[in-house]
Amino acid sequence: MKSIRPFFIIILGAVTLFSCETVIDAKLDTGPTQLSVEATLTDQPGNQTIHLTQTAAYFNSSVPPAATGATVQVSDKTGRVFSFTDSDNDGYYVWQPKVGDTLGRVGQTYSLSITYQGDTYVASSNMNRVPTIDSLIFRREKINPLSNQEGYQAEFYARDLAGATDYYRIKYYRNDVLQTKARDIITSQDGSFRGSADTDGLVFIRPIRQSANPDSLYALNDRVRIELMSLTPEAFDFWQELRTQITNGGLFATPPANVPTNIRNTNPKGRPAAGFFITSAVRSRSAQIIPGNVRP
User: Fold this and answer.
1) pLDDT for residue 5 is more than 60
2) What CATH number does residue 165 fall under?
3) pTM for the whole thing?
4) What CA–CA distance (Å, rounded) separates 186 from 168?
5) Residue 159 β-bridge partners
6) Could you tell me if 175 and 47 lie in one domain?
7) Same domain, 190 and 290
8) What tens digit of pLDDT does each residue of 221-272 get?
9) Distance between CA atoms of 83 and 93, rounded to whole angstroms?
10) How many H-runs (helices) and E-runs (strands) does the chain carry?
């Protein structure tokens, strides 16, 4: 009997524990929809596009609905006004230049105005300077030190512009396809990392020069294009925080936070907006991985 009693107590405790279990059906308040703005305007020739959508519930994995019927304009300090129209009614608002014209000019400040569903949203951004990419080369490397599999690693060379703190974003394309993983959100301050040594006016440091590579490296005959884009300090913070939130997970995850925005509703009591208005000067370099472009 003494051996049975402890077992009986354990069973009784388990039954009591599970009998107290309560199923809670949590209903999350999705809140009102907001306007989401994706706008990066450049000094490059061709059409410029601003994409407007409406935010969706957190657990809704469907494509966000397009924000149609908006009035979208961009202006600069010289009085030029650029009207963006959504001819396809799909939320993509496009400005088409005349022959030989471009929207963006380095050193200019641009103002965005969006009127949507009775609200007016505004934002502004400076188009800062950016250096040229001097060269783009490739080296044959192992995927990792313990693997026999090899690929080609790209490395670009650029020199930071001296005399001020400059902020950049690096984008890269593999066979004309933009690489869009979280790790591909690459930013730099003066060709280095924020908080590192003073690199004003120096050649970009090696980790930045080699940052535009996919996990599997490149293959022979791949086409690679590197784009170096100027950022304002606020846009730099936006991209850094966006990457942090996208990769925020696992054992050491921090509480989620709203990604900053520079888009403001002119009515303080109106619905806020999400997204960011960015203007960037862009310099690029392209090369194909052929024997003549591979270095020892």
Assistant:
1) no
2) 2.60.40
3) 0.86
4) 8
5) 203
6) no
7) yes
8) 999 999 999 999 999 999 999 999 998 877 667 777 789 999 999 999 999 9
9) 9
10) 3, 17
